[in-house]
Design brief:
The chain is α+β, with helices and mostly antiparallel strands and 156 residues long. The protein has 5 helices and 10 strands. 30% of the residues lie in helices and 21% in strands.
């Protein structure tokens, strides 16, 4: 409250404490947007039979509904941040294809916010994501840089 660039609740500048409900949008200084979800709104955490079956194949696995990621039989914990998950999801949906840097930026930061995103910001996000995935399979590089174009997912 009373910050220099303001805090917005569902698009309106707030000046006093506000109670949040599921789905409310909180925006800080027009830089970062958050969606509020109460603890009652969480997804069930039991793995589905499909996930269990795919674990045995030793591949990287994503569950979009719960934003959970597994490498082999180990879940990536703590969960990936929203930008990390968006980046990995785009690569996962385009397995073995190179995704351009501009498409990565547009997807991760969404079109409206992507205008001011630098290559360094994308590189930092990729480095953090690689650091999160590496401990679960240190001998394999999941995110491969294709110089001058973008990235591709190298799933085992």
């Amino acid at each position: 409250l009373s910050s220099k660039n303001g805090t917005y609740y569902n698009g309106n500048l707030i000046s006093e404490p506000t109670t949040l409900s599921d789905g409310d949008l909180i925006q800080i200084a027009f830089v970062q947007t958050f969606v509020f979800l109460s603890s009652d709104a969480t997804m069930p955490m039991e793995p589905s039979p499909l996930l269990t079956e795919q674990h045995s194949k030793g591949t990287l696995l994503l569950d979009e509904r719960s934003r959970r990621v597994w490498i082999k039989d180990q879940e990536v914990l703590p969960p990936l941040s929203v930008p990390q998950f968006r980046l990995l999801k785009l690569l996962y949906d385009n397995k073995a294809q190179v995704v351009s840097r501009q498409d990565l930026i547009s997807t991760v930061w969404e079109d409206e916010e992507a205008m001011g995103v630098s290559d360094q910001a994308l590189d930092a996000l990729v480095r953090r994501l690689r650091d999160r995935l590496a401990p679960l399979n240190p001998k394999h590089e999941y995110i491969v840089t294709v110089r001058g174009y973008g990235l591709r997912l190298n799933d085992e």
